[in-house]
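tool_call predict_complex ligand=NAP
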Amino acid sequence: MKISMIVAMDEDGCIGKRGNLPWRISSDLSRFRRLTEGDGFNAVVMGRKTWDSLPDSFRPLPERLNIVMSRDTTWSHDDAESALYPGRAIEIAYADGCEECWIIGGGQIYEMFLEHVDEIHLTTVHTSNSGEVFFPVWERKNWIETKIEETEIDEKNEFRTTYSTWKRK
Ligand SMILES: NC(=O)c1ccc[n+]([C@@H]2O[C@H](COP(=O)([O-])OP(=O)(O)OC[C@H]3O[C@@H](n4cnc5c(N)ncnc54)[C@H](OP(=O)(O)O)[C@@H]3O)[C@@H](O)[C@H]2O)c1
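tool_result ok
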């Protein structure tokens, strides 16, 4: 089972503002859905705060096994699995036969899994000062970037973006 990370951040590494995404970038949300759903059955691993941030209509994220990391042993939800530690999240995804396990944030969950992934799907949102939650410190010199796509501003996309994949050297 492949384990991948997906994140959108501004030019300073910011990923969140007051419990939500700081921007409205429709093309990025579509890409997120397409990549994380994939062709088979995949898992998404998120922090409890990110789970709380999802609108009811998007919770659970459809067609994917939703795994929520929480230290609260009483946390439970009919539509998601809960995991107390990173290895447990991976174990659940593997046991359910997932082909790919996507680490989808937020900040605390990226920090926990960064050393365990070999591929990061990154959308850079070309703005700064977006909010107060950040991606962890990341040694980009140890990774190789492949640029995939750039998108421009339009009525559904607040900022210009660059989508690239980063593979560990
Ligand atoms: N730009 C992006 O791509 C992106 C993606 C996802 C999220 N976000 C944004 O990121 C922000 C949320 O990030 P965040 O860092 O505040 O929260 P988070 O990572 O979503 O969730 C934090 C929670 O995860 C649980 N947790 C943390 N470490 C754990 C561990 N070692 N073992 C088990 N559970 C653990 C805890 O839950 P309990 O408190 O229940 O114990 C903790 O409160 C939001 O603004 C969201 O919109 C952005």
